[in-house]
DNA sequence: ACGGTGTATGAAACTAGTTACATGTGTCAA
DNA sequence: TTGACACATGTAACTAGTTTCATACACCGT
């Protein structure tokens, strides 16, 4: 900038004024500075600006993975909303590992993020200490708990699981196999599972497997004969189950009913169309972005928001008369 | 930092040394500074560090959308690789709009990104001018062109389209409907389409529709009777087509064959399993990350990389004997 | 006792901007 | 003609750290 000032025969203050939307700089001076800027290919340093304004306009998002429709939809909506508020989104993946989450949080803090959006409410002590120290706003998503210390913007995973279960029960099913992803370090899955156990209307058998199409497809080969319905705690598992059942020569829903949770965009165009519980992840992303932007601008801590999940009954669940 | 120095009874230089991995600071002084840091909850300013080092360790990614498996897989791999090299990923979506891409690029530049990963090779003049000025490394992906001015790391979209076409031709199909997404502002789709027109082994009818399951499902209701195969330029369209054909009472592949391009993870577990051309997007993400990191560290311009696409023949294409 | 060497530390100059305050000039009204 | 005021601009003090260079002191060998 000193160079530009010298080249234009003005002071650095004047160059600074021109660079940041000149308020009261003479027309002539303005163009003289602009020429110098062009001649020297001058670009102002973002870091230097940030040091003065104290702002970076960056938000960090910590998600288990980007390679899953549920998180990428969420992030898409989040990014769109944040962009509207002048914020940019820095993404880091945690693979559901709290230690890695804490490490990546530190990285983002060292970048200068002004706030965080994270998945779930379980965080390592390191992470907790970090955000307390930096006084960084954090919003937890994919979860709803009005009493959580960090504001949650999401849905009640227990309710979602119960909606799926009740649908199966309503349709006459009582021998149900629950296909779950790992509950280790995953409070969303744990909440879904916890809501199911203790249910007295049906006999539930729970199986914990990796959340992949292949694992679910392989697993359904070993389903006990008395099972009439499959409750998959995520649509990816349900898709795998559908595939695996077909491979075993079983018809859905004639031989066995299947329901999922997530309602991925592709689920309704499967064959048979997959019954599922819709999770409002786009809305969640927009809400989280809006709320976090507000929090940062006003300094007022965000309030938790509960978004409703919705049962989407489709053809993969059949009504049966109990034996 | 001045406060910490005063509190510990040392100079700012010493505090600075302690904060950045003390090399030669006396044990006693070190702990005295640490106490002061803890007492005052001091956290160093990333902006001030950046201003001195001239580094931000941020990479910007510009993609059409996050809400599409092909881009989110790519970004997942990219983020993982960049993290290994100490870089963080800032994501911005462009919706395939060059003007918006340029705007978002400017935003990211004002954040201080040290490099860009973009989709395709078509950029607005504004964008071009911007990166020339800032001398920011840019890598174009999802495309391969060894002669492009910006290095490309990706696959040949024309080859991918031809692989799909040749498979259909090999299986005896000559009356083919091509379902394409919009070519407007999308050089990847355009390249695929261009590779097909001029083909003499089959009669091609091209239809351009939005890239959604619903649009494809609706469209297949109007397929001319003589068509024996559907070539979808993306798996999302193929999935929609599969769904729509079923709705029309047509069997795949008995009544009509369908092939896609992308090979989304879910495609092989559809019914029927979808034949497709596999695009190595994970590898592309890893390569792009690796290469860009190298470029930034060494200053040596990256070389283009061509990744092979691969035909995945599955059950959705049937061999027929030409009438 | 003296000089050489090494380590620990501080003062001040640096990174690249922004901004408060002072100053100079020109216009207009009293 | 002079005071008041607006406007344009420069000076210098800020933002928050890093780094160079100088210095002080301890230790060791002669």
Automatic annotation (TrEMBL), chains A, B:
InterPro entries: HTH_LacI (IPR000843), LacI/GalR-like_sensor (IPR046335), Lambda_DNA-bd_dom_sf (IPR010982), Peripla_BP_I (IPR028082). Keywords: DNA-binding, Transcription, Transcription regulation. The keyword Transcription regulation applies. GO terms for molecular function: DNA-binding transcription factor activity; transcription cis-regulatory region binding. Residues 1-53 form the HTH lacI-type domain. Gene3D superfamilies: 3.40.50.2300, lambda repressor-like DNA-binding domains. The keyword DNA-binding applies. PANTHER family: LACI-RELATED TRANSCRIPTIONAL REPRESSOR, TRANSCRIPTIONAL REGULATORY PROTEIN. This is LacI family transcriptional regulator. It comes from Roseobacter cerasinus.
